[in-house]
């Protein structure tokens, strides 16, 4: 493929455990049609972090100044929360870069949206998704199509979704990170949004506790829909006695009275979509299927005051020509 888009890989959170995985990620991203450049601090280690706070901030500074259009986190883990007050968010937005990451990177995605209204991306990371011997076909295809502006519609199968047909700003990420921002200047104030959530290694009672925080903070009930990705790697105990993730979903519906849709191909899983955070999208259901309309080709954009706090803000990146209706899990 000519005219390859470039990806700059940097490490804003935890240290990379296996340097070879970054090299494999480079090779696999090249095979997906991207050129890659690795930040010189990407493999740094300080305690559990990819370098000291100052080193990781410097890496972000380099990412803003270099010429590749896409900036991708090597991995999540822990560490971005410490940096949020030290980052020049206007400079991040003004760089025009497309920032991609997941998990701990949720803090970056949401802080950028709260502070500037700019769109960024949640889903693929270098090591988890491109650092293995093989790349999951769906993950690679969906990431590539979104970055090239070709992904108009993402459709996925669901066993449990309330009927809905609405538009709103898509936002969210890893539930623990979303909850950690409540009450801070880095929590987007979005009314009429479409909130998506996932988490890993959190027992259903912890998931419910974080959802309770978002509900009691007045956040969940202001959304038009709540999309649930995959909640993985937890173990139920005998005394749970039937209290499981489906029970939490049932409680959520009953309590918040907002449409809840499950099955979003997003989470700490092999097959995942990359999603635009801060972009206005459409959501529509039919029996057993949910359609996310990511690109509607409308050229009438109202950027409002640029702070992304109002459901009418529309930040749009690219207008692709290829509709994609991949049913997640069925590959291409």
Automatic annotation (TrEMBL):
Belongs to the peptidase S66 family. Residues 297-319 have a biased composition (Basic and acidic residues). Residues 167-281 form the LD-carboxypeptidase C-terminal domain. This is LD-carboxypeptidase. It comes from the Bacteria. Residues 320-332 have a biased composition (Basic residues). InterPro entries: Carboxypeptidase_A_C_sf (IPR027461), Class_I_gatase-like (IPR029062), LdcA_N (IPR027478), Peptidase_S66_N (IPR040449), Peptidase_S66C (IPR040921), S66_fam (IPR003507). Residues 7-123 form the LD-carboxypeptidase N-terminal domain. Residues 297-332 are annotated as: Disordered. Keywords: Carboxypeptidase, Hydrolase, Protease, Serine protease. One of its GO terms (biological process) is proteolysis. Signal peptide: none annotated. The active site is at residues 103, 198, 268.
């Amino acid at each position: 493929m000519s005219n390859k888009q470039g990806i700059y890989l940097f490490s804003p959170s935890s240290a990379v455990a296996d340097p070879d995985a970054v090299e494999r990620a480079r090779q696999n991203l090249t095979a997906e049609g991207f050129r890659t450049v690795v930040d010189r601090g990407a493999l740094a280690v300080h305690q559990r972090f990819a370098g000291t706070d100052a080193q990781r901030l410097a890496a972000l500074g380099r990412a803003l100044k270099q010429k590749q259009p896409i900036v991708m986190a090597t991995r999540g883990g822990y560490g971005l929360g410490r940096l949020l007050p030290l980052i020049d968010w206007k400079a991040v937005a003004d760089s025009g870069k497309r920032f991609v990451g997941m998990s701990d990177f949720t803090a970056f995605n949401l802080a950028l949206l709260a502070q500037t209204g700019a769109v960024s991306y949640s889903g693929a990371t270098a090591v988890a998704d491109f650092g293995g011997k093989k790349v999951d076909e769906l993950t690679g295809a969906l990431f590539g199509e979104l970055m090239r502006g070709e992904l108009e519609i993402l459709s996925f199968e669901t066993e449990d979704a309330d009927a809905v047909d609405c538009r709103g700003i898509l936002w969210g990420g890893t539930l623990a990170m979303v909850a950690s921002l409540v009450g801070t200047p880095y929590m987007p104030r979005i009314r009429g949004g479409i909130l998506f959530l996932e988490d890993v290694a959190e027992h259903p009672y912890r998931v419910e506790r974080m959802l309770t925080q978002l509900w009691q903070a007045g956040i969940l009930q202001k959304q038009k829909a709540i999309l649930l990705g995959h909640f993985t790697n937890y173990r139920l105990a005998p005394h749970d006695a039937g209290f499981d993730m489906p029970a939490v979903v049932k409680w959520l519906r009953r309590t918040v009275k907002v449409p809840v849709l499950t099955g979003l191909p997003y989470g700490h899983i092999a097959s995942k979509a990359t999603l635009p955070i801060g972009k206005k999208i459409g959501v529509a259901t039919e029996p057993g299927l949910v359609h996310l309309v990511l690109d509607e080709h409308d050229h009438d954009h109202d950027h409002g005051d640029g702070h992304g706090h109002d459901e009418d803000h529309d930040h749009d990146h690219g207008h692709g020509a290829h509709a994609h209706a991949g049913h997640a899990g069925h590959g291409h």
